[in-house]
Specification:
single chain; 851 residues; six-stranded mixed sheet; five-stranded mixed sheet; 26 helices
Length: 851
């Protein structure tokens, strides 16, 4: 039977068809991979499954160049145009697929082979242009040709342009629609063109045998084969293989994914140097895997690091030419297989290579299942914003086209970029004499060029890690080059700057002595000068000392908002003690828990609130009832023993995730927040609004930011805060220069009264995810001089990072949290690294560490 098939394969199509029919009549059944001639009705043939997808895409996005296959050839030497014309004519005669057109009738889509016709070559002479203009024009024409639109109904589906650059230099641009040709076909085209040109240049008949089959023969055979038992086995494999797969690979993008995919794209290039490429080859050989498998493993390891996902799916094209008759035929044979690899358990490089080897071998064993038909069966979640099942593709070109020498000519294939991207990312690797050439076609709606260029560098670093130590875990491979590591760890964290090395209350004392008559605190009709504030706080500090309070003691402060509360906080610090805010709105049980947990020495309150307190085992002082005792103490500051690292306050978290936790904050942390810092400039000319509850750490910035800089502290009532129009009027009337708001409150004010912040010097907001639309409204309606988005946990004393918001991109879904404050540091570390967290590259998600 093998000899019989071999004889059939070399017969001309008409004799092959006749012999196959006679064998069938004699009861001799040909093997399933034998492709018989297809029978046409009215010269119409069905479409392959892949062709159907491209037909429907053309109707969904008419005129899109997404499925154009451009080929650019540099022809150097003496070009004989008549010989070239004859060669192209012969190519169209030889390959019927290049003469196909498409139609639909009564809902059935069919393809029709057209009779051979002369190739229409558009000759464009650029010789008269200046060299630089000529080169630019040729580049523009090459791009324009690659983006040419095709009419699938009427054809032709291949075009030719010949650019004449000089007497001995031409560019031949051919563009064919993918529905009739694939990447393999481009190599066949160039090879056949060379053979034909060589023969016609010598006035000889080309030594090219007739193709044994037509592309439409393959299409009919494939559709019939997919109706058989092999189809069921392939479907079952892929259904099981893709069960439970993630719908989308959550790549970190520079912009949000559009609701509808536009397929706009560009390409970024890099090179794996030859020594590293050879080392990768050697490692793959030693591990018993192909180079393709090794490169896929490194790509999937990189994608896992970029996304934080452990189940990585990528698509990879396969030639689809498993039958000998198809190897020299132009047509759309290519299929796509899905390579799904798990990186669960943090495998070593060796373990991952073994997993990928299994993945690839199993996928290739079931590669005949048309991807388009598979989609129809498994019905994945569909979205116009991304491709189904996978959004990232990979291909290895291990047989690059070499320059061809023709009579008087040398042909060199050139790069051609049509400005489209079928996927989010498509990594194309080519083996060259210089190493592995990397080309990523990427979606420009999602990514900036610099982001993809950086990704290519990280891929090279991943390969370096693979060959450096095959036993190491892939999650620990260092992706950072020296420059990027320096940027992340040193340059962006070079925040050290001098600040006063004094306790916060000492700074307030010095300020009060410099500007005693300046207004320190305002609450409605009441106010205190700095001298008054210092006098009252000094008396309280001396009273506390008389009560036995010593350096480092914790004092509970159970008072409502008002000027006395500010005096008590300052007086407590001047006694070298630390204050613990106790919100009177808290339930008695929570107050009791905080008192016990903090180990308070005593609680300061007033007579009206004493009854609300739970039963306590420590002294409770009602300050209003001790007015006479307070007046009897000296009104000058007592000597201080406190140092920068002494405790200033203990603040309890909300307890929303469990038991409330006390956070101890030293003086140093407050001073670094409010003095000589890099995010705000505060002075005695400022009026700072005090909007936060004293149990919320934003009050730290408000109170001590004002008092340590000689500014005026304006206490704003809760009622005013919740009435945007009233708040706006208050800010204008009191000439407030600086205010901090929670993000939720900022959003509310922005929606109702976006002009509320106009004229302010500094508006800070933070605490949760921000609505970019609200920020845009404020920026458009009358922004403050500086709008700052700030972030920081209570443990880091109010703010750790800041971002000056000058504009918000129309597609933005959030606003950055920015850079570290002065004397702070911020790192984004890999949560999957079992060694404790390596810095992740720019743009790669990780866990934020601040200090």
């Amino acid at each position: 039977m093998t000899d019989l098939i071999d004889r059939l394969a070399v017969l001309p199509p008409e004799k092959r068809a006749l012999l196959a029919l006679r064998l069938k009549q004699q009861g001799i059944m040909l093997p399933p991979d034998f492709i018989p001639p297809a029978q046409a009705r009215d010269n119409a043939f069905p479409l392959s499954f892949a062709q159907e997808r491209l037909w429907f895409f053309d109707h969904l996005v008419p005129g899109s160049p997404l499925y154009n296959l451009p080929v650019a050839l540099r022809l150097e030497g003496s070009l004989r145009f008549p010989v070239l014309q004859c060669s192209l004519d012969a190519l169209l005669r030889r390959h019927e697929a290049l003469r196909l057109r498409f139609s639909d009738s009564a809902g059935t889509i069919v393809q029709h082979p057209e009779p051979p016709a002369a190739a229409r070559v558009q000759l464009i002479d650029l010789r008269q242009l200046a060299p630089d203009i000529r080169a630019a024009t040729a580049a523009d024409l090459t791009t324009a040709a690659a983006r040419r639109t095709f009419d699938l109904r009427n054809g032709p589906l291949i075009t030719f342009d010949l650019l004449r650059l000089g007497e001995a230099e031409h560019l031949l641009l051919l563009v064919v629609h993918h529905i009739v040709a694939d990447g393999w076909s481009a190599g066949i085209f160039i090879r056949d063109l060379a053979t034909l040109y060589t023969a016609y240049a010598a006035d000889q008949a080309p030594l090219l045998p007739e193709p044994p089959i037509r592309f439409v023969d393959y299409v009919v055979w494939q559709r019939e084969r997919m109706a058989g038992p092999e189809h069921a086995a392939g479907y079952q494999f892929w259904q099981e293989r893709l069960a439970g797969a993630a719908t989308v690979l959550e790549l970190p993008t520079d912009r949000p994914r559009p609701a509808v995919q536009t397929f706009r794209g560009d390409t970024a290039l890099a090179l794996v140097p030859l020594p590293l490429a050879q080392a990768v080859q050697a490692q793959c050989k030693q591990a018993g895997v192909t180079l393709f498998m090794g490169l896929v493993a490194a790509y999937q390891a990189l994608l896992a690091r970029y996304t934080g996902q452990q189940d990585i799916l990528i698509g990879s094209p396969v030639a689809g030419r498993n039958q000998r008759e198809t190897s020299g035929l132009i047509g759309f044979f290519v299929n796509t297989v899905v390579l799904r690899t798990s990186l669960a358990g943090n495998p070593s490089v060796q373990e991952l290579l073994a997993r990928v080897r299994t993945t690839v071998l199993e996928a290739l064993a079931h590669q005949d299942m048309p991807f388009e038909q598979l989609l129809g069966y498994i019905k994945p979640d569909r979205s116009l914003s991304h491709t189904p099942i996978f959004q990232v593709a990979f291909v290895l070109q291990n047989s690059p086209m070499q320059p061809l020498s023709l009579p008087g000519l040398q042909i060199t294939p050139l790069e051609s970029n049509s400005g489209v991207a079928k996927f989010d990312l498509h990594l194309d690797i080519t083996e060259t004499s210089a190493g592995l050439k990397l080309a990523i076609e990427y979606n420009t709606d999602l990514f900036n060029h610099a982001t993809i260029q950086s990704m290519l560098g990280h891929y090279v670093r991943m390969l370096e890690g693979f060959v450096a130590d095959p036993e190491q875990r892939v999650a620990t491979i260092d992706l950072l080059g020296t420059a990027e590591r320096t940027l992340l760890l040193e340059t962006w964290n070079a925040t050290a700057r001098p600040y006063p090395h004094q306790p916060i209350h000492q700074l307030v004392i010095e300020q009060a002595l410099r500007t005693p008559t300046a207004v320190a605190v305002v609450a409605g009709a009441q106010q205190r000068s700095y001298a008054d504030l210092l006098r009252n706080a000094s008396r309280l500090a001396r009273l506390l000392a008389a009560q036995g309070v010593r350096r480092g003691d914790r004092i509970g402060v159970y008072l409502e908002r008002g000027i006395p509360l500010i005096e008590v906080l300052l007086g407590t610090l001047m006694a070298d003690a630390a204050y613990v805010p106790l919100d009177p709105s808290y339930p008695g049980e929570r107050i009791g828990l905080m008192v016990e947990d903090a180990g308070l020495a005593l609680v300061l309150t007033d007579s009206r609130l004493v009854a609300q307190l739970p039963s306590l085992q420590i002294p409770v002082l009602a300050l209003d009832a001790m007015a006479e005792a307070l007046a009897g103490h000296l009104d000058t500051p007592p000597p201080t023993l406190a140092r920068l690292d002494d405790l200033a306050y203990c603040m309890y978290t909300s307890g929303s995730t469990g038991r409330p936790k006390g956070v101890n904050i030293p003086h140093r942390a407050i001073v670094r927040l409010v003095r000589d810092t890099n995010y705000v400039a505060l002075s005695s000319a400022d009026c700072i609004a005090q909007a936060a509850n004293v149990s919320f750490d934003a009050a730290t910035f408000e109170i001590w930011g004002a008092l340590a800089n000689g500014a005026r502290l304006l206490l704003i009532s809760r009622e005013a805060l919740l009435a945007p129009h009233e708040l706006a009027e208050l800010l204008r009337r009191e000439r407030v220069s600086t205010i901090f708001l929670t993000t939720a409150l900022f959003n509310q004010i922005a929606r109702i009264e976006p002009t509320a912040f106009a004229g302010l010097r500094q508006v800070l907001f933070g605490g949760e995810a921000v609505d970019p639309d609200c920020v845009r409204q404020v920026l458009a309606a009358g922004p403050p001089e500086r709008l700052l988005h700030v972030y920081g946990p209570t443990e880091n004393t109010t703010f750790s990072t800041w971002h000056h918001v000058g504009a918000v991109d129309g597609a933005a879904t959030t606003v950055p949290i920015g850079q570290p404050l002065a004397n702070d540091r911020a790192y984004v570390l890999d949560p999957g690294d079992p060694l404790g967290g390596q810095p992740v590259p720019v743009g790669v998600p990780g866990e934020l560490y601040v200090g």
